[in-house]
């Protein structure tokens, strides 16, 4: 079993908890507390450092695509949804219904939403880019304010606009 490392990054959308090994990233999650749990910056492998650097570049508007190996546990359906999320272009959004259609089942909107919610690698696997069919911001484990911030940040970088709506 590989050694897992945990560290934290203070981002514009709050504290991010980053987990991974020397070979892959397994978690980027929002950590709503000012107290850090176990983990830190001592002896971090290059993979974790590279993840932090790419997140910093993303938040500075210098990175649109992440180049990190990801490994998270999930069902084949969840992994298919997560893979499809990676195809949503930076600065663009897609509805849950459209995402269900992309995986071949227009009746699977709720299952797609559930799989989206089980994504443990926020921002890098861009589940924040999925919105309601009516263009409303719905369903984001990190909170709708974060989803709105991330979408507005990407729109500003991609299109030079301040807000989406």
Care to give the gist of this entry?
The chain has helices at residues 46-59, 76-85, 96-102, 109-117, 144-159; strands spanning 5-11, 14-20, 25-30, 94-95, 130-131.
What composes the largest sheet?
3 strands, antiparallel
- Backbone shape: globular
What portion of residues is helical? 25-40%
Q: What is the H-and-E element order?
A: EEEHHEHHEH
Strand order of the largest sheet: 1-2-3
Structural class, from helix and strand content?
A: alpha+beta
Strand content: 5-15%
Roughly how many Å apart are the termini?
47 Å
Index terms:
two-stranded parallel sheet; 5 helices; globular; 5 strands; single chain; 165 residues; three-stranded antiparallel beta sheet
């Amino acid at each position: 079993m590989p050694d897992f490392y945990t560290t934290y990054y203070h981002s514009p959308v709050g504290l991010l908890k980053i987990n991974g090994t020397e070979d892959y990233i397994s978690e980027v999650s929002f950590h709503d507390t000012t107290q850090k749990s176990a983990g830190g910056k001592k002896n971090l492998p290059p993979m974790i450092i590279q993840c932090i650097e790419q997140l910093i570049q993303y938040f500075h508007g210098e990175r649109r695509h992440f180049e990190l190996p990801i490994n998270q546990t999930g069902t084949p359906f969840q992994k298919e949804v997560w893979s499809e999320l990676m195809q949503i272009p930076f600065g663009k959004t897609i509805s849950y219904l459209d995402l269900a259609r992309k995986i071949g089942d227009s009746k699977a909107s709720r299952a797609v939403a559930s799989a989206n919610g089980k994504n443990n690698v926020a921002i890098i696997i861009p589940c924040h880019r999925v919105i309601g069919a009516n263009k409303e911001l719905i369903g984001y484990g990190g909170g709708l304010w974060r989803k709105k911030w991330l979408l507005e940040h990407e729109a500003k970088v991609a299109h030079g606009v301040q807000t989406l709506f």
